[in-house]
Fold:
Amino acid sequence: MICLIQRVTQAKVTVNNQDIAEIGSGLLVLTGFQPNDDSNNIIKMANKLLNYRVFSDEDDKMNLNVQQIEGEVLLVPQFTLAADTQKGLRPSFSSSATPAIATKLFDEFVQQNRLLYPKIQTGQFGADMQVSLINDGPVTFWLET
Structure:
């Protein structure tokens, strides 16, 4: 499981010219799944994501997590994160979970995050999404389980 997290001042997802999700200060999380991902990966990543300290404290050090600043989280499925880009000039998606598996994993990931923290919004699996954001810092991290 892969999450590309970005600290943002705002982010939104648009599908068919309609905004379907929007957050203020918090984390935009692009999420990709691999064939061997399971519930253990989901639980581990949700805990890591919500406790990862990327927000500044009073001394301007990254010591606070999204929950401590009462920020929001926007989870967006992005299968291209798991692409194999090692050979050639075209990505291979053989290292990505199939859409049927990834849909279930994404839904489970959303549910797990919502169990732990209420301020969760999502993109739409399988949709042609336009994602806009203002990256704060910029601060971006790649998390894997």
